Amino acid sequence: MKVGIVCPYSLDIPGGVQNHVKDLAEALLGLGHEVSVLAPSESHDLPAYVVPAGGAVPVPYNGSVARLAFGPVAAARVRRWLRDGDFDVLHLHEPAAPSLSLLALWAAECPVVATFHTSNERSRALSASAAVLRPSLEKINARIAVSEYARGTSVTHIGGEPVVIPNGLFVHRFAEAQPRPEWRGEGGTVSFVGRLGEPRKGFPLLAQAFGHVAGSREGLRLLVVGGGDVDEARQLLPTSVRDQVTFLGAASDEDKAAALRTSDVYVAPNTGGESFGIVLAEGMAAGATVLASDIPAFRRVLDNGAYGELFANRVVDDLAGRLGALLDDPERRATLDDAARTAVRRYDWTTVASQILRVYETVSS
Length: 365
Hints:
This protein is of the alpha/beta class.
C-alpha cells in the first residue's frame, strides 16, 4: 500500500504528534508498505521517507506553541507531493489546524484518514475554525482519535465519530536502552522530560518539589531532558540542590531512552492540555516508576494508579511527599514496574500500526 502521511507541525521541534508520525511511518515501512511523510522542516538531517515542506510560523495554541506552514507556497508543495506520490491512502494529522494537513485535505483526490490528537474541552478557536471548515472536513473517509479525551474534543468541536487508537511506541527501544552510570545518583535518580519554557509541562512544580526532597538526600540526582532556557530553569531550583541536577537539553531519542532507563522514578508534573501522555508509556517501557499528576489523560494511562503513582495536580507538597515515599520504597516501585511492563505492550507499534492499517483497508477497498 502507498501511504502518504501529513504532519502539520514542524519536525525541527520535538513533539508528540511529530514523534507519532515518524514512528508510524517506520512501523509501516517495517511491514513492507511504501510511505512518504510531508511536514514543515528546514532541517537537512531528515529520514529518507520525509519530504520537507519548508519553514513554519510559531502560533500559540492550547498552552503550547504550534509551528505551522500555510499559504500559497506551502499549498503548491502539497499539490506537487500528492501528484508525485499517487497514494492509495492519505493520512492527515490534525486536519483542522491551519497547516499542511488542511491544505492536503483540500487538494486530496484519494481516500483520506484523519487522526485527531488535541484535547481541549473549551476551544473557541477550534469551534470557530471547524464551523468554517466543516464542508472540507466531510471529505474525510475515516477518523481516528488517540484517546477518549481527544475523541471528545473532536466530537464536540468538529463532529464525526472517531475510533480510538492510542499513540504508539517501540517498546523494545526503551526496554533495551542502556543505562548511563555517569548519570546515576548514589541516592537515587529522578527524571523529567518536557520543554522547559512550556508552563503546562510542569517543570517549575518539579523544581520546587525536588528542592524539598533533595535537601536531605545529597546523592539524589535529577535528569532533565528537554529544550529551553537552561539558565532560566536552573534559577527555579533552590541554590542548595542545583549541583544535583543534570540538564541534558533537547536530547536524541537514544539519550532520552537511556535517561529513562537510568531513572528510578520518572516524574510527569504536567498541569493539563494532554490528550494521552505517550511519555508515561515510554517511562513504563524503560522500567522507571512513573509518578504523574492526576490529570484525566494520565489517570487513564496509569489505570488510576495501578501502573504508576498519581499526585494531586499542581500540589507541590503532594508531589514531594509521593516522590520521597517512592524513593524510600523499592518494593512498591517493583510492584508498579511489573504491572507497567505488561500493560505498556498494548501501545507497542506492532499492535497500534495493525489497528491503523485496518482503518486504511476500510477506506481503500
